[in-house]
Structures are given as C-alpha cells and as structure tokens.
C-alpha cells in the first residue's frame, strides 16, 4: 500500500513519550505525525477536529519528508525529539522550550521555519523489528534519602535495566550510589544495568 505519511491520534498524558520512542525506532523518511486534543469533543471550541485536520495536512506535505516523527497541535509543528508537555490543561501545552518548533500552520498550510532534519531517518538508533517484547526497564526517581529497596525490588523482579532520574547535573545521591553498586553486581547474574538521567521534562 502506498502512502505519503502516517497520522496517529494519542492521549495527551504521554504524548511526548510515544513519539519520542518512535523517533528512535521508525526506519522511514516518511512523516509520522501525532496529534491529540486538550479539550473534549463536547466542549465549546473543541480543538480536536482542527488538530486532526492540521496533522493530516502536515503528513501529506512534501516538506515534511525526512523530518522524523512530529507532534502537531494548536497550529504548531514540534519535533518528537524535543517537544514536551508543559501544562495539564492549556491548549499550547506542547512546546520545545530550548530548541523551538519545527514550524507553524498558517491559513491551513504548514510553514517549516527551522531546518532541523532527523539524521538519516531510515537508520534510527534502535532496531526493534526482531523483538517480540521490549526490555523491562524500571525508572527510579531520586530524592533526598530515597530508599535503596527500590533498587532491590527492581533487581528482584529481573528488570533488564534501571533508569535513575536524578537531581542536578548527574550528581548521584548516597542511595543512588548504593543502588549503582547493587545493579552492577547483578550484571554478572544477567541482571539489571543502571543508567543515569537528570530530570528535565515536566507535565
């Protein structure tokens, strides 16, 4: 079947997560566009129909080719790699505060304003085509005096990986360092690996 692009409707709670994942795994230069609605269909000035129309318009536009996975809402075109949800209720919640939008919708037509193009879109970072299931990865959020038993539980349940969403510029807390040692020892038993990540996203 021949097609120019794909449009996916999605809930807004994790709309910055699923597109990010697909941007790492989809091996095609055809546009994949996510869209959603911040207001229910029964609300006055519901935004869903217009968002859907604009998402289809972007997916069909030749300029969208090779730009990776995108998120289209509220007349804005965002790159899945950078967009994040910043507010639980406002229409303009999905933003890329540091990198900016890829473009905007003006009078029903996409206008791409930045030249960021996903590097070799059909050679994405991860190849999941041969997987029957994704690895089980646990995310542990760091805070003062966070308990080490969170790591114990993840290792006991045979997590394939642990992500520590820490504080500051990657400076680990005492319990995180203890968890790092535990996960490191478990590697020799085919257990977990620990990755560090500073908390950046909101919403």
Give a structural overview.
The protein has helices at 18-25, 48-60, 149-156, 174-186; strands at 6-9, 32-35, 69-73, 76-79, 84-85, 94-95, 103-106, 109-112, 137-141, 161-166, 194-198. The protein is of the alpha/beta class and 203 residues long. Helix 3 runs parallel beside helix 4 (174-186). The radius of gyration is 20 Å and the shape is globular. It starts with 5 loop residues before the first strand and ends in a 5-residue tail after the last strand.
Topology, pairings included?
Blueprint: E1 6-9, H1 18-25, E2 32-35, H2 48-60, E3 69-73, E4 76-79, E5 84-85, E6 94-95, E7 103-106, E8 109-112, E9 137-141, H3 149-156, E10 161-166, H4 174-186, E11 194-198
Parallel strand pairs: 1-2, 2-3, 9-10, 10-11
Antiparallel strand pairs: 3-4, 4-7, 5-6, 7-8
Helix pairs in contact: 3-4
């Amino acid at each position: 079947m021949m097609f120019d692009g794909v449009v996916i409707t999605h809930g807004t709670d994790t709309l910055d997560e699923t597109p990010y994942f697909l941007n790492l795994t989809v091996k095609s230069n055809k546009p994949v566009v996510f869209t959603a609605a911040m207001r229910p269909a029964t609300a006055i000035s519901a935004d869903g129909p217009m968002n859907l129309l604009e998402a289809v318009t972007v997916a069909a536009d030749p300029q969208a080719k090779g730009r990776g996975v995108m998120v289209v809402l509220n007349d804005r075109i965002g790159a899945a790699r950078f967009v994040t949800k910043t507010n639980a209720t406002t229409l303009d919640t999905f933003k890329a505060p540091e990198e900016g939008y890829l473009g905007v919708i003006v009078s029903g037509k996409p206008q791409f304003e930045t030249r960021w193009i996903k590097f070799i879109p059909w050679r994405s970072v991860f190849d999941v085509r041969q997987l029957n299931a994704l690895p089980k990865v646990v995310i542990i959020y760091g805070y003062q005096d966070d308990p080490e038993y969170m790591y114990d539980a993840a290792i006991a349940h045979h997590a394939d990986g642990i992500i520590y969403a820490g504080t500051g510029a990657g400076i680990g807390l005492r319990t995180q360092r203890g968890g790092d040692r535990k996960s490191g020892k478990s590697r020799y038993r085919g257990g977990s690996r620990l990755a560090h990540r500073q908390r950046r996203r909101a919403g």
